[in-house]
Amino acid sequence: MPGKEKQYANNPKAFHDYHILETVEAGIALTGTEVKSVRAGRVSLREAYARIERGEAWLLGAHIAPYAQGNRYNHEPTRPRKLLLHRGEIGYLAGKTRESGVTLVPLRLYDRGGHIKVELGLARGKKQWDKRQAIAQREARREIDRAMKEAVRA
């Protein structure tokens, strides 16, 4: 079924800590036990980030738990994993990350057409007052929704 996606992990902390400027989809090079572990949902992107080094993109800090039925050839949980991008995309992202305060953050890990993909976000860090402002806006929106719901009931 084309267009059907199954999401394995997301990174809500990224949306709290960063302004996401734009997103890019990348493939990821995984071993067999990593694929089985990801499909079982045993993955975390909480402390993960991406980096461009020597013309290659790498996902660092992502935790994929060892596969339960794996043998001695099981993978290391936090090993660096290569991201599969076109050379032009890597050059573009490398240029953008050289800017002050811009970094690559994985937003979610999902399956598209039988291939596991990572959605990367070009992100700029939020200041503390930005975070407080976002929380205040969310609370205000919640209050408005509550008031609307009460008005409809009355």
Overview in brief:
The chain is of the alpha+beta class and 154 residues long.
Question: Would you write up a description of this structure?
Answer:
This protein is of the alpha+beta class and 154 residues long. It is 33% helix and 37% strand. It contains 4 helices and 9 strands. The chain has helices at 12-17, 32-39, 87-97, 128-153; strands at residues 5-10, 18-28, 43-44, 49-53, 56-60, 63-64, 81-84, 102-112, 115-125. The chain is globular and about 65 Å long. The chain starts with a strand and ends with a helix.
Secondary structure elements and their pairing?
Blueprint: E1 5-10, H1 12-17, E2 18-28, H2 32-39, E3 43-44, E4 49-53, E5 56-60, E6 63-64, E7 81-84, H3 87-97, E8 102-112, E9 115-125, H4 128-153
Antiparallel strand pairs: 1-8, 2-7, 2-9, 3-6, 4-5, 5-7, 8-9
Number of individual domains? 1
In CATH, what is the homologous superfamily? Small protein B
Task: Round the mean pLDDT to the nearest integer and report it.
Answer: 86
**Order of the strands making up the biggest sheet:** 1-8-9-2-7-5-4
- Secondary-structure class: alpha+beta
Could you estimate the helical fraction of the residues in percent? 25-40%
Strand content: 35-45%
- CATH topology grouping: Small Protein B, Chain: A
Spans of at least 5 consecutive residues with low confidence: none
Bulk shape: globular
CATH class term: Mainly Beta
- Helices and strands, in N-to-C order? EHEHEEEEEHEEH
- Major sheet details: 7 strands, antiparallel
* Tally of separate helices: 4
Number of strand segments? 9
Rg over CA atoms: 19 Å
Distance between the termini: 45 Å
CATH architecture: Beta Barrel
